[in-house]
Amino acid sequence: MGRTVKAGGAGPLPKLALFLAIAFLLPLFCVQAMTSWPLFQTGPLSLVLYGVEAMSPTLAALICAAVFGGAGGLRCFLRKSYLENVSPKLIAIAFAIPFVVFLAARLVTIPLTGAEFEFMALNPAQWVAVSWALIAEELGWRGYLQDQLGPLLKPMLIPLVTGLLWAAWHYHFFMHLSIDVPAVLFFLGCVAESYAYYALTVSADGNVIPASVFHFSGNLAINLFTVYPFKNNGSTLPYVAGIAVMSAIALVMNLRLRRKLSYERA
Questions:
Q1: What is the pTM (predicted TM-score) of this model?
Q2: How far is the C-alpha of 47 from the C-alpha of 145, rounded, in Å?
Q3: What share of residues in the chain are helix, strand, coil (percent, to 5)?
Q4: Phi–psi pair at 67, nearest 5 degrees
Q5: Could you tell me how many helices (H) and strands (E) the chain has, helices first?
Q6: What is the C-alpha to C-alpha distance for residues 110 and 101, in angstroms, rounded to an integer?
Q7: CA distances (Å), 191 to each of 37, 184, 228, 264, in order?
Q8: pLDDT tens digits for range 132-186
Q9: What does the CA dihedral 6, 9, 14, 19 come to, rounded to 10 degrees?
């Protein structure tokens, strides 16, 4: 995944700087607007700002692709990310993995949490929030950031750095108090999942649809199967179990990916 869109003559560092500035500062602006300005505290404008806040990685990627590559660079970036190398098999795998993992983690830990299994029916607003993951983040993290890190890092360090940045970016959701797991566990989970995202994206030769579906499926499963502590008598065990299994799966996915790439180079 070390390839970048060669446009505009700029190296990866200016692109990384602009991307991270937009991705991290735009949510802060949105949070401040929603907490300080009555106009944005309730109603449609509040929802719009929340959507922009959650979509800042994708917006950052689009802006960077346009700034450094012009209209041609932006079209090339979008074509590579969404239209080329579309794999229904990878998309199906991407949906199945987190859905099954978090369902199993919730079921297995029932005796340890003392909480009965609860299937949470999502209301329309929750469905919109969960489905927003299909477009909000992965064009930025896995479509743009991974490519820009390619020339700077060894392949197996790319998902580590991406995962840490991705986890840190969630600071604004912690400000909203909408993430109900300890920050350390959340960071570990983001890094573990980042390796699975990396394997999916590289296997798709840069297409981000499998990563986007993976993100959507994980958010859906965590909500449907009430994995977070507030639904499990405060226990983090379902989340920890899910991340542990996801780490093992991500390891297998990356080992298979390395063997595949080695075979193709031979």
A1: 0.91
A2: 27
A3: 75, 0, 25
A4: -65, -45
A5: 14, 0
A6: 15
A7: 35, 11, 18, 27
A8: 999 999 999 999 999 999 999 999 999 999 999 999 999 998 887 778 889 999 9
A9: -40
